[in-house]
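Researcher: Please translate sequence to structure tokens.
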Amino acid sequence: MSNPTLSRRALIVSSAALFLLPALPSFALEPSINVAKDPTCPCCNDWVAILEQAGFAVTVEEMDPDALQQHKLAQGIPAEMQSCHTGIVEGYALEGHVPVADIRRLLAERPDAVGLAVPGMPFGSPGMGPEESREAYEVFLVRKNGTTEVFSAYAAA
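Model: Translation complete:
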């Protein structure tokens, strides 16, 4: 019976792999997002594609407008913060065309909040046209008491 030993080459390769592991793309570690949307909305599909390209595992649930409205309210999204679709990630709501960078920041900071909202459908927000010609818009943090504050702002391009 042979005695397995670790060769010098295997040791170097294993060490290099452990060193490089943190440098792997973050898509390998992104959480899943469930998106509720109206079946007739194409911009929602564009936002979903952006999330998937960023490495999130996305499931889509199509709802009729009344059920979608009830879903938004049940998630704690105030009427003035609503948009066309609602995502749920790790207990947070994502209302509208929320940028990936803001989703990642939300998950890193873990505020005591309902989630993030981009009210309306601002041109140039993710899934709403080219970013290089976007209009200015804000991403709001929605608190559990219904109040909001600016989480990030995007200037017009």
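Researcher: Any highlights?
Model: Strands lie at 32-37, 57-62, 85-89, 92-96, 115-118, 137-142, 148-154.
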